[in-house]
Write a structure and sequence with these properties.
By secondary structure, the protein is mainly α. 66% of the residues lie in helices and 0% in strands. It starts with a helix and ends in a 14-residue tail after the last helix.
Length: 198
């Protein structure tokens, strides 16, 4: 076993040594000319002229092409709808995640207040039997009343903003009705500058 180790150590230690080898050209050999790249057989260019010939389409390729042209307006419409709805869906998902996070870390007393507001909506729905207008007015009205008891500052801001919007809508409606009344129901003799009387 000692001999095997000694023999294997010798060549392994020689492989770690580095040395340089210098080669000199033979003086008695004749001088050869260098070969160009295009003279090599690997890089030879064929003599004939090549021409592109398009293969005729098969029946399957024709039918697929026809189907693609037929479906192109629908796919472009779907892509447009996807691009339009993608930001809305992302904001909806973000709102859902924020709501879930809020409900996981809800402030104390939030769920009892939510229960009272929901119960007020159910009471409004029960009191609104028989009329569709009552079903549209009573439940949100009762829920708004219950919510305003628990959140008075937000209720005041909501009433101010919605009151301004209702006033604006009422004013616009009044202007439209007044214009329609002047155009259709006034007598031609009472109007001084009507387009027909010049």
């Amino acid at each position: 076993m000692f001999k095997v180790i000694r023999r294997s150590v010798g060549p392994a230690s020689l492989s770690l040594l580095t040395f340089k080898v210098y080669a000199s050209p033979k003086r008695d050999s004749p001088h050869k000319t260098s070969v160009k790249v295009n003279e090599l057989s690997l890089y030879s260019v064929p003599e004939g002229q090549s021409k592109y010939v398009e293969e005729p389409r098969t029946q399957l390729e024709e039918s697929i092409s026809h189907l693609r042209h037929y479906c192109e307006p629908y796919t472009s419409w779907c892509q447009e709808m996807y691009l339009q709805t993608k930001p809305k869906m992302q904001s909806l998902v973000h709102w859902g995640l924020d709501s879930y996070e809020y409900l996981q870390n809800a402030p104390p007393g939030f769920f009892p207040r939510l229960g009272v507001i929901g119960f007020a909506g159910i009471v409004g729905l029960l009191l609104a039997r028989g009329s569709k207008i009552k079903k549209l007015v009573y439940p949100p009205g009762f829920m708004g009343l219950a919510a305003s008891l628990y959140y008075p500052q937000q209720a005041i801001v909501f009433v101010q903003v919605s009151g301004e919007k209702l006033y604006d809508w009422g004013l616009r409606g009044y202007i439209v009705v007044e214009d329609l009344w002047k155009e259709n129901f006034q007598k031609p003799g009472n109007v001084k500058n009507s387009p027909g009387n010049k």
